[in-house]
Amino acid sequence: MARNYKIATVFGGTGFVGRQIVRELAARGVVVKVATRFPESAYFLKPYGAVGQVVPVACNYADSTSVHEAIKGADFVVNCIGILYERGKKSKFQRMHVDVPAMIAKACADENVEQFVHVSALGCDVGQSNYAKTKLEGEHAVQSNFAKAVILRPSVVFGEDDNFFNMFAELARYVPFLPLIGGGKTKFQPVYVGDVADAAIGALYDYSGKYSGSVYELGGPEVVDFKGVYERLFKYTGRERRLVNLPYCVARFEAAFLSLWPRPLLTRDQVESLKTDNVVAENAKTLADFGINPTSMDTILPGYLSRYRAGGGRFNTQTTA
Ligand SMILES: NC(=O)c1ccc[n+]([C@@H]2O[C@H](COP(=O)([O-])OP(=O)(O)OC[C@H]3O[C@@H](n4cnc5c(N)ncnc54)[C@H](OP(=O)(O)O)[C@@H]3O)[C@@H](O)[C@H]2O)c1
């Protein structure tokens, strides 16, 4: 008897973007296998569905059989694996952004998966950082193994657990100034994590095939530079800080030290990334093609940045620190 529900495998489902996609899939009654290196780290996702609906599955990326096993039986596959910096032999850009996506895409073809959504990054076609270059190479590897794949390229993603606004808000707690790297002129188009997840869902339930084989650039309704980002931060955390210009050469020098931290605050490759604007291209396919009206930062940021307000969070009326 044919089953009346879908099965999805989400790689990187424990991450910031991945968990939102897991949540949306579970809300649609999909059985979700969360492929992860550490199954116990995915237990927090179980309450997103009914008992047994969200299932952490151990995956060893050194072994293609393990990837096949994670995908076997799935109708949908989503890849949200990505790294911002390299660490050790197993956490290299080439491996995580090219070889592993290629392996997943090939397994999708072998296992006759209905649709595969691969999360890439905005600006990968123009950026000169190793992050960008390997993200682009990864897209090509996915397309050559699974031609129908839908590729999503988000700009900086914001939402309650993001690593962008939260990181700067945390920094602003402890330092009297914040850096404007390269003069802070780089432009971003921050996109809400819920909109990225909705695009992924739209691409998976693509029965007409209209999204198949295409690349989508996902940006929010506003383009901002670093000053614009910090202004939002100050407004919603109430912590105004001095902005200090940090030329690229100085930032590169500082990054050499900051990248030695266990979770680097800044790497040389990230400084390179900041030399290119991160905005949706004029002729690109976008969120609008999924019928999604992008959510503004002002709708979402107050909800989670208020916890950084001095003296006790959202119920405190104090506006400066
Ligand atoms: N967040 C953004 O602003 C943003 C912007 C543009 C593009 N993107 C792209 O969107 C995707 C998701 O980003 P995210 O912010 O959700 O990332 P994230 O929170 O860091 O999660 C990434 C996931 O990748 C897996 N992963 C990390 N290192 C790994 C390694 N060495 N080997 C195998 N798996 C590893 C982890 O899964 P396990 O630990 O469970 O194995 C983790 O859940 C990435 O491809 C990223 O490049 C993100």
Which features characterize this protein?
Rossmann fold; seven-stranded parallel β-sheet; binds NADP nicotinamide-adenine-dinucleotide phosphate; two-stranded parallel sheet; alpha/beta; 15% strand; 321 residues
Please tell me the CATH architecture of the domain at 7-157 and 190-219 and 280-294 by its name. 3-Layer(aba) Sandwich
Sheet with the most strands, sense and barrel status: 7 strands, parallel
Rg result:
20 Å
Distance between the termini: 63 Å
State the oligomer.
single chain
Order of helices and strands: EHEEHEHEHEEHEEHEHEHHH
Can you offer a commentary on this structure?
With 321 residues, the chain is an alpha/beta fold. The chain has a domain at 7-157 and 190-219 and 280-294: NAD(P)-binding Rossmann-like Domain (Rossmann fold, 3-Layer(aba) Sandwich), CATH 3.40.50.720. It is 36% helix and 15% strand. It has 10 helices and 11 strands. The chain has helices at 16-27, 64-71, 93-110, 130-145, 165-174, 193-204, 226-237, 248-258, 268-273, 297-305; strands spanning 7-11, 31-36, 54-58, 76-79, 115-119, 150-154, 157-158, 177-181, 191-192, 215-218, 242-246. The strands form 3 sheets. Strands 3-2-1-4-5-6-10 form a 7-stranded parallel sheet, with helices on both faces. Strand 4 (76-79), helix 3 and strand 5 form a beta-alpha-beta unit. Helix 7 packs across helix 10. It is globular. The N and C termini lie far apart (63 Å). The model has no long low-confidence stretch (mean pLDDT 95). Bound molecules: NADP nicotinamide-adenine-dinucleotide phosphate.
